[in-house]
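TODO from last week: model histidine kinase.
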Amino acid sequence: MRSVKSMKASMAARRPLSLQARSTLAAGAALAAFLGVTGFALDRAYYEATVAALRDRLQSYIYAYLAGSDVPRGTKLLPPETLPDPEFNRPGSGLYAVILGGADGALRWESPSSLGRDLPFVAQLPVGETRFEGPVETAVGRMFVLSQGVSWEVDERKPTALTLYVAESEQQFHRQVAAFRRTLARWLGALAVVLLLLQIALLRWGLSPLRRVVRDVDSVMNGDAERLSGAYPPELDRLTASLNELIEFGSEQLARYRNTMSDLAHSLKTPLAVMRSELDSAGDEDSLRQTVASQTQRMHDIVAYQLSRATASRHQVFSTPLALDVAAEGIVTSLEKVYASKRILCEFEIDSDARFFGARGDLMELLGNLLENAFKWADRRVLFTAHVLKAPRMRRAGVELRVEDDGPGIPQEKVEHVLRRGVRGDERVQGHGIGLAIVQDIVKGYRGTMSVRKSETLGGALFVLRFEAV
């Protein structure tokens, strides 16, 4: 069991191959397959061509014997004075010729090279028939054999049927083929090495923009640069743009967290100083209790405000698309219980493919604050709509969110005032006055837009959030 676990751990820890190694292996396999098929095709083509050339050469020998031979009156065959090839004169040379003739095979002539060889050439072929065989097994080894039956006609004599055999040992043929195969293997091997080196050079050149991206990212991480600003191929434009977006987002988040902590520390100084002053004074216990209670509540509000501010910017650049109908239904169900006495009717008009690309917490903050504000001010009806914003050649679609009610609405000249932090539309209505400000911060964090106007459908306030396609 331990060995199995250790093997799994080692396999999990094994570093994956680099892109260049993967490409080199794939190119090497493809190159090996291509050169293998090419070598096989060339070998077969050369083999067939060599066999055809051998057959033609043997046929030329037969024609030469026919042209130079003679059958005078009687049973003796006179071969040509000069043989077609000197090898026919050398015993055991591997090149043999036999001529058979006569009705009963009385005529038989063998080239000097056939002396002492038991050649199996005894069958007479019909006139006009030609056979090419090989390599065939014989007593003197494997040979290629061409035989042809002819009718010999001289003057007015009776035609004589002759069968000519010309044979050549396969040794010479195989030496020729083997020499070609050695040459082919050397050239294909050299070509494979050259092509593989060229492929590696091309891969290094082709992957150089990725290495440049890595170097630029290292420069950003080391603080030598603020963003990726090099000239990259079009295929890397989206990658570098997304990396720059991620870098900018991280910088903005770091600055926001620093500002939030600084603001929190600065804001807590005053209530802490008040309580310290009250402790140092000689006031009565009731006054101290009242001061501590009021300042504690103030500190609670400050912390809640700063935490909401920090949370509002904690969205993700790369995230899973979130369905809007499920989130909205959950929020509305809770609000209907809180505002049960008002008997609010909330309606949805949500496109089936409408999605919010961000953190679930940010989506819940957006919808929760907007819908709660609508329930708070509505008389009877609230309408929530979500429409898809599509644009050509974009990575993902945008979305437009609308929340409207049939309440008193917000005058246009008071919109900017209401959206400020800590400002309530009506001081008589309970709340902290930061809900709409949180929504505005979230929208800005996602580079969206927010507008407030009068609802033409219900007559109350209409909040419109737009997140464009990217």
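Done. Residues 422-433 have pLDDT under 50 and may be disordered.
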